[in-house]
């Protein structure tokens, strides 16, 4: 049955039918991503993140021209988390390493398949059979199927249906090519403000909305308010969903504990003692002051972050972040700072009592071939 559906996709010429065929895949992808978001406290969160970040690659059949690079990009996103898995379980359990290699091989083999058979995307046949309606609607004959199991995520059902429908409509519109502009209305010179000065004082032409202008599912979904969390769960300190909180403090720490800071806005957190690692994820305008970290401090998917090291930290990693100021201590001047896909990063080095000198982290690089290898160095523009 799976082979039959793939054959039908390759010969159909109606984008709406393609969207309907891909609908079950889209629903499962969204269900997987929601499962990851609901299990951020899991000790297998990096495993879940690797799957969640790469699973949209299953939609490569809807990517025109070059689906191969699309799959590779999502595979690279998964490797960001699988590298953490390999590091965390290096000397603990080899099964996790086997899982990483097995999972990543799915996408590498898919890339090889696309490169061999569909380098420029799926080729649509003009003479092949059209997908029958039975693939889009449930059969009317036969005994009634057993009732479906209860939904795994009842709170997300409505939102999932709307987003899938909107995504399907978007795919259908984008694949029209030049025909996408056929639905645009012609604007006469009398309706153009730059040719009719009288309209400028009136604020332009006012369009009276009708029932046809209303797009189904366009009503914005209210953002769910999460309760702030500051608690120790096993070996992990969870600091989540804090807003306008400037007195957050973690005092009783141990060497084996990790601190996970997620979705905090306009807040300040102080961590005393020595911890194993600190992760700052999806935060905005966060100030973090800490003493000692024996592993790594990671900042990812964040904006306007200020970090101050009072003791030592061997490695600071900054990924997908806009705006990050790092205040180093005299004991932490030998730390390594690794950055990727980030901007507006500055390192402040102590010069005396309460005095710092600011050094920007390069964002622009130049790569040349020296005859045997690639040599990359920061450009003068980036400082």
Automatic annotation (TrEMBL):
InterPro entries per the UniProt record, alphabetical: Adenylate_cyclase-assoc_CAP (IPR001837), Adenylate_cyclase-assoc_CAP_C (IPR013912), C-CAP_CF_C-like (IPR017901), CAP/MinC_C (IPR016098), CAP_C_sf (IPR036223), CAP_N (IPR053950), CAP_N_sf (IPR036222), CARP_motif (IPR006599)
Region (Disordered): 134-163, 184-225
Family: Belongs to the CAP family.
One GO CC term on file: cytoplasm
GO molecular function: actin binding; adenylate cyclase binding
Gene3D superfamilies membership: 2.160.20.70, Adenylate cyclase-associated CAP, N-terminal domain (1.25.40.330)
A single GO BP: cAMP-mediated signaling
PROSITE patterns, per database record: C_CAP_COFACTOR_C (PS51329)
Domain C-CAP/cofactor C-like, chain residue ranges per copy: 222-361
Annotated protein name in UniProt: C-CAP/cofactor C-like domain-containing protein
Biased composition annotated in UniProt, kind: Pro residues: 142-153
Pfam families: CAP_C, CAP_N
